[in-house]
């Protein structure tokens, strides 16, 4: 089978790249082993949250303009600040076509609340996490009700509220906690099942209990302007349910990302896959690329675990297999390697320098900055030093940035995926 482009890895980066290519009429296949990091993420897209000293970055694009000049190997520098912006707003436009509205605070970061009640700077959030009404109500210091569903074990509003109250931004804001009973849950003390957010979201999607829940939420919120709840307003019909619940309760309904699986992240994953399919893209799920054939400076074809030995060939390839978390990088006792093509990896030969002794070190863990080394065109080199000119590496697989320390994971995945597509299109024109 031959395609214009084969993308290995169907996460945020691979799918952004695939959509950009498929919309030009290119034949594109994405092959992906399993769930991507989106199922674990907050569903907000971070651009640049913290500078090198751990201080919050308030205006990320302004920050980037200078940052890329002094950090030429950073993935954002490989894209260029202008293309990072172009990529992010392109991404927002694509999600919009699938019914997911992403909101930003003009040129500034906004904060979203985590399950533990800490605040995290981010650039794009879904409507139930950030919009103009939420911003204004927060500025007015309106009362907040942090609510949970009785028996749901992945969110503890009392703990979240302790942390929120410690935050200077929440000074003089009244926060109460409350419980609502999910009608299908039965007796939470005797319930033999552990409901995860995804189970509850699926029940929400049926819309069966919306009115009943609205009454409970209104009562539990007793006078608050916001009802902040774990994010499970549905996976497919969330937009309608959010609107309906707000109308029925008269409250701003705020979604807090839950422990995985993250409904907010799953919505983005579904939307990207749906957009890719609607453009004619082929998504091969549940298969793993195990190797490829490189001839001279070109990758000719790849083989997969389930392909029965038949090769997939293409004019260009994108490797978007993620970091250690998704199997894009593998650590052995004394080396870090890239398992599909054994590409040249940036890492440290000395294992004891891979991590810092503290759990949350200020300077971050070094292993988070390891990855497949590329040139400025995102082309990697093989282990024996040959440059592969029709292979582009993107996303969490790339080195020289730290998604946790910087708060930049989503932004890097989107912008390098987009950048690879632009380079491929330039090469074809
Ligand atoms: C727990 C967690 C929470 C995060 N939260 C946030 C957040 O709130 N906001 C934010 O902006 N960023 C967040 N990030 C970072 C951001 O989500 C990731 O950097 C980004 O999603 C990475 O996208 P990716 O496409 O590069 O890789 P991934 O999402 O890791 O996708 C890689 C895909 O490749 C597949 N794959 C791997 N090897 C092969 C193979 N050989 N053949 C075929 N397929 C293969 C994997 O199965 C996977 O589906 C978080 C990351 C993690 C791990």
Describe it.
- Helix 1 runs parallel beside helix 10 (263-278) and helix 1 (12-22) runs parallel beside helix 12 (409-428).
- The protein has 2 domains: 2-99 and 266-321 and 335-428, FAD/NAD(P)-binding domain, CATH 3.50.50; 130-256, Rossmann fold.
- It contains 12 helices and 19 strands.
- The strands form 6 sheets. Strands 1, 2, 11, 12, 13, 14 and 19 form a 7-stranded mixed beta sheet that branches.
- The model has no long low-confidence stretch (mean pLDDT 94).
- It is of the alpha/beta class and 429 residues long.
- The structure holds flavin-adenine dinucleotide.
- Flavin-adenine dinucleotide binds at residues 8-14, 31-34, 36-38, 40-42, 44-46, 288-289, 320-322, 325-328, 340, 395-396, 403, 409-410, 413.
User: How far apart lie the N and C ends?
Assistant: 23 Å
Low-confidence stretches: none
Bound molecules: flavin-adenine dinucleotide
Query: Please, what is the average pLDDT?
Result: 94
- Radius of gyration, in Å, reads 22 Å
CATH architecture of the largest domain: 3-Layer(bba) Sandwich
Strand share of the residues? 15-25%
> How many domains, in number, for the residues?
2
Beta-strand segment tally: 19
Envelope shape = globular
């Amino acid at each position: 089978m031959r395609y214009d482009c084969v993308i290995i890895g169907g996460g945020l980066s691979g799918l952004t790249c695939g959509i950009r290519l498929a919309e030009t009429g290119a034949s594109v296949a994405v092959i992906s082993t399993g769930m991507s990091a989106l199922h674990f993420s907050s569903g907000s897209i971070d651009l640049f949250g913290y500078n090198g000293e751990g201080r919050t970055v308030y205006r990320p694009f302004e920050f980037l303009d200078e940052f890329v000049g002094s950090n030429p190997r950073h993935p954002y520098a490989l894209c260029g600040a202008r293309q990072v912006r172009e990529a992010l707003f392109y991404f927002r436009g694509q999600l919009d076509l699938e019914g997911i509205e992403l909101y930003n605070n003009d040129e500034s970061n906004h904060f979203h609340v985590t399950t533990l009640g800490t605040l995290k700077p981010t650039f794009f959030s879904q409507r139930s996490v950030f919009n103009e009404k939420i911003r204004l109500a927060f500025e007015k210091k309106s009362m907040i009700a942090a609510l949970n569903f009785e028996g749901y074990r992945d969110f503890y509003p009392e703990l979240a509220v302790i942390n929120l109250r410690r935050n200077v931004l929440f000074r003089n804001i009244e926060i109460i906690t409350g419980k609502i009973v999910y009608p299908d849950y039965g007796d939470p003390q005797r319930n033999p099942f552990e409901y995860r957010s995804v189970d509850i979201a699926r029940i929400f999607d049926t819309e069966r209990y919306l009115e009943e829940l609205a009454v409970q939420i209104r009562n539990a919120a007793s006078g608050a302007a916001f009802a902040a709840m774990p994010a499970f307003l549905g996976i497919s019909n969330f937009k309608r349910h959010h609107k309906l619940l707000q109308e029925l309760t008269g409250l701003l309904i705020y979604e807090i990302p839950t422990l995985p699986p993250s409904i907010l992240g799953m919505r983005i994953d579904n939307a990207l896959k749906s957009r890719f399919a609607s453009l004619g893209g082929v998504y091969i799920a549940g298969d793993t690329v195990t190797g490829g054939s490189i001839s001279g400076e070109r990758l000719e074809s790849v083989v997969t675990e389930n392909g029965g030995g038949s090769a997939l060939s293409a004019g260009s390839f994108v490797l978007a297999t993620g970091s250690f978390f998704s199997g894009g990088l593998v650590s052995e006792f004394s080396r870090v390697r890239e398992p599909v093509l054994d590409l040249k990896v940036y890492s440290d030969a000395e294992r004891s320098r891979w991590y810092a002794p503290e759990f949350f070190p200020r300077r971050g863990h070094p292993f988070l900055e390891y990855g497949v080394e590329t040139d400025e065109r995102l082309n990697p080199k093989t282990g024996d030093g040959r440059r592969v000119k029709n292979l582009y590496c993107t996303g969490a697989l790339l080195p020289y940035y730290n998604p946790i320390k910087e708060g930049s994971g989503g932004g890097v995945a989107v912008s390098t995926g987009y950048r690879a597509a632009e380079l491929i299109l330039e090469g074809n024109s």
